């Protein structure tokens, strides 16, 4: 503050203005004179907390609770309406001329119902994509696979929208699908059983055409639909749905969404291919629009009448000139050649359009594609898909984890899938950094075709396992929804093009300084080597003159500056605390201070608890009880020879050392608790057989042995109960031995004489291993 340096007054007052209400300040005073210059600075004053605006406080104090609630609801509704206005199509509901109509629409005087209708009408294209995904997940057959591949690989890549002809093709194709499904549910098509097929044949049921199907049939849609794979994949089959309406609900919703969107496009003046040519990207975009004077009014429905009338007159003139011209029909190529030419022309035009991108570099270029950036959402979905695939691998690929439980390792297929997912993330990052839209286009086509065709057409038709049915795998259907959402984002990126310069911004820094943004940024940077890998990958791909050390230093400085910026933003939001106006919250002191102290003490004392008797994992998991039953199966009879209950007790030192050496010699088991199970010598219940039946059994065994047709078996069924784990406390196992002809003769002699013994070699092993699963080894 400038003060009169020669003033002789001992005190001086000065009013400091332009201070912000509600902010804390500290002041420093420094003297100055012409002879001595600046003097030393004073100490900082105490914190001065300025009150908030008195006018606002007075208004707030005067408000009642009801007024406060109404004011809050009014502000909330205004915020919601302002945010939701970005969902409106500005071409249909433009704001006044002095407003930014490019990104927001105008609600006008619409109420809640009409406003919701405006949002649905404006978001008709996104509603169509939701209906498309639902239709595919609901049916998963060749018809829906063809439609979704056409949309994801061709129609959705057109900028700014698919042409009206493409929308009409999709609409009529959806109508044909609806009628095909209705006809399949009629009495003309029946499910016929192949009598020569086996019980586990995946195609023992197939669709057949008959004059009139019977009302009652052996086909059960609940259980037999899995055994009509070829018919369900290539066409469709009846499912466990009572009403025909439920069978085609997704098709009806798809057609309704198409009608809504086609009406939306008609309101914008997009009716023919000529209308689409006016707004599509091109090399001479600026020059073309200067010549044609394309304005927003031409895209609205106000001039639709004049435009449609003129278009009809031009089309009629072209047809007349074609009819009376010298063009001969004999010289016209056949329909197959014309179709091929049409497909080639449209694919070539799409490929050329995909390669167009705006550029701010010299020379600058405006092709009508300002670009967008959906890389963050793509990486998020890829991360979700990878975690889902790892945790739910066995169900998604129709396999069982039984083969992995014995080795406690990853399967080959899962390992390859994880490596492929990581490689795909790296490849996506490289394409994003280089902004090579045509490489992105090729990867998008490859991924869409391989997933849809491979998973839902090739695998069901070629896999011989009876339970491989994507339509009956709810996990795979949910996984497919997320996968198709990622495909839609990829198609949006290709259609809009990359935004130049966006790839140089750190992805997580775009979340800002909000609490969620800070939390996500810090948690992500806790992942080991993630920052280093990203930095090295960016340096390899980007065009720069810096070496790796310089690049890494600049990236580190950029990271630290962002961290410092977030800290300053946090302290600014908590300026009352950090400015000294109020003390630090006691709750946060307890949460942070006590939490850190407990964590340090836990780290210091954890080894003591881990290796002490407090650790339940170190307690002996002994076998408490065991049961055994021995029965003889011969012909159609079962004879229970023995049953008994035993308890486990510790082995002596010699047996225990032998068992430990046996387990240590294996590859996967290093140590185990050893128990000895001893069953009573005599059965708990006697085997009582009448003399006549005993003679018949002995005679039958002897006769079977004589003719070398003895099929008797002796089965020893055992069960063991231990303390844990809770999901597998009791394990069972059966030891089965098929009697040879000699053993049958010996057993027949023992039964006839009521005395003697029969010895079975290598029937019961020396020891059993009870792993923490539901199987015995």
Summarize the structure.
This protein is an alpha+beta fold. The chain has helices at 54-62, 65-84, 112-122, 124-139, 142-153, 164-184, 221-224, 229-234, 244-247, 249-267, 273-279, 285-292, 304-324, 335-354, 375-391, 393-396, 402-405, 412-434, 437-462, 474-496, 515-525, 530-541, 548-573, 575-578, 586-610, 653-664, 691-706, 741-753, and strands spanning 24-25, 30-33, 37-41, 48-49, 189-193, 205-209, 623-634, 637-650, 675-677, 713-722, 730-738.
- Beta-strand share of residues: 5-15%
Mass-distribution shape: extended
| Sheet with most strands | 5 strands, antiparallel
> What is the structural class?
alpha+beta
Number of discrete helical segments: 28
Q: Runs with pLDDT <50, length 5+? A: 295-309, 400-409
Distance between the termini: 88 Å
Residues in helices, as a percent range: 40-55%
Number of strand segments? 11
State mean pLDDT (0 to 100 scale).
Answer: 79
Give Rg in angstroms. 40 Å
Strands across the major sheet, in which order? 9-8-7-10-11
């Amino acid at each position: 503050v400038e003060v009169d340096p020669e003033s002789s007054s001992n005190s001086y007052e000065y009013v400091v203005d332009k201070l912000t209400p509600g902010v804390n300040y500290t002041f420093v005073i420094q003297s100055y004179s012409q002879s001595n210059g600046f003097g030393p600075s004073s100490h900082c004053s105490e914190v001065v907390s300025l009150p908030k605006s008195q006018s606002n406080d007075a208004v707030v104090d005067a408000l009642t609770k009801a007024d406060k609630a109404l004011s809050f609801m009014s502000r909330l509704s205004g915020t919601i309406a302002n945010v939701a206005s970005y969902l409106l199509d500005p071409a249909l509901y433009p704001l006044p001329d002095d407003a930014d109509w490019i990104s927001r629409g105008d609600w006008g005087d619409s109420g809640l119902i009409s406003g919701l209708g405006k949002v649905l009408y404006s978001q008709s294209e996104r509603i169509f994509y939701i209906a498309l995904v639902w239709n595919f997940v609901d049916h998963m057959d060749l018809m829906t696979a063809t439609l979704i591949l056409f949309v994801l690989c061709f129609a959705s890549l057109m900028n700014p929208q698919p042409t009206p002809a493409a929308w009409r093709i999709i609409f009529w194709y959806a109508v044909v699908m609806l009628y095909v499904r209705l006809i399949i549910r009629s009495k003309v098509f029946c499910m016929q059983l192949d009598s020569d097929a086996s019980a586990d044949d995946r195609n023992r049921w197939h669709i057949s055409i008959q004059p009139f199907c019977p009302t009652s049939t052996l086909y059960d849609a609940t259980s037999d639909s899995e055994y009509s794979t070829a018919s369900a994949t290539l066409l469709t089959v009846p499912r466990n749905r009572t009403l025909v309406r439920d069978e085609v609900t997704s098709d009806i919703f798809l057609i309704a969404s198409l009608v809504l969107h086609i009406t939306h496009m008609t309101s914008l003046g997009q009716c023919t291919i000529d209308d689409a040519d006016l707004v599509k990207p091109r090399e001479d975009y600026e020059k073309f629009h200067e010549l044609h004077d394309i304005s927003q009014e031409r895209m609205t429905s106000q001039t639709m009448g004049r435009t449609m009338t003129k278009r009809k007159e031009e089309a009629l003139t072209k047809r007349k000139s074609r009819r009376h011209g010298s063009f001969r029909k004999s010289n016209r190529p056949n329909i197959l050649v014309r179709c091929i030419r049409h497909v080639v022309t449209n694919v070539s035009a799409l490929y050329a359009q995909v390669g167009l991108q705006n550029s701010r570099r010299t020379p600058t270029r405006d092709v009508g594609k300002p670009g967008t950036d959906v890389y963050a959402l793509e990486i998020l979905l890829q991360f979700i898909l990878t975690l889902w695939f790892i945790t739910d691998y066995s169900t998604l690929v129709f396999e069982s984890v039984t083969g992995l439980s014995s080795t406690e390792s990853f399967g080959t297929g899962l390992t390859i899938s994880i490596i492929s997912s990581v490689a795909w993330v790296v490849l996506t990052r490289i394409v994003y950094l280089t902004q090579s839209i045509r490489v992105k286009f090729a990867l998008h086509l490859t991924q869409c075709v391989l997933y849809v065709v491979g998973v839902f057409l090739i695998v069901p038709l070629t896999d011989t396992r009876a339970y491989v049915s994507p339509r009956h795998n709810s996990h795979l259907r949910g996984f497919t929804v997320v996968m198709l959402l990622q495909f839609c984002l990829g198609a949006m990126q290709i259609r809009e093009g990359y935004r130049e310069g966006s790839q140089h911004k750190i992805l997580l820094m775009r979340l800002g300084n909000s609490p969620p943004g800070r939390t996500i940024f810090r948690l992500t940077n806790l992942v080991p080597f993630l920052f280093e890998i990203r930095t090295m990958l960016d340096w390899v791909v980007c065009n720069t003159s810096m070496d790796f050390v310089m690049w890494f230093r600049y990236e580190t400085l950029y990271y630290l500056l962002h961290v410092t910026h977030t800290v300053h933003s946090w302290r600014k939001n908590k300026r009352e605390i950090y400015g000294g106006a109020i003390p630090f919250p006691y709750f946060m002191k307890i949460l942070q201070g006590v939490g850190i102290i407990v964590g340090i003490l836990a780290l210091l004392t954890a080894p003591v608890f881990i290796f002490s008797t407090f650790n339940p994992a170190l307690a002996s998991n002994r076998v408490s009880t065991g049961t055994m039953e021995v029965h003889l199966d011969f012909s159609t009879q079962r004879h229970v020879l023995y049953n008994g209950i035993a308890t486990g007790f510790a082995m002596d030192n010699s047996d225990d050392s032998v068992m430990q050496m046996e387990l240590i010699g294996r590859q996967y088991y290093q140590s185990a608790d050893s128990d000895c199970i001893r069953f009573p010598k005599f059965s708990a219940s006697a085997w009582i057989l009448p003399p006549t039946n005993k003679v018949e059994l002995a005679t039958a065994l002897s006769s079977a042995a004589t003719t070398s047709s003895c099929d008797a078996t002796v089965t020893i069924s055992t069960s063991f109960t231990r303390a844990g784990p809770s999901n597998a406390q009791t394990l069972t196992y059966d030891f089965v031995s098929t009697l040879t002809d000699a053993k049958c003769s010996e057993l027949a002699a023992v039964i006839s004489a009521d005395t003697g013994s029969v010895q079975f070699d290598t029937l019961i092993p020396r020891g059993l291993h009870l792993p923490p699963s539901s199987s015995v080894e």
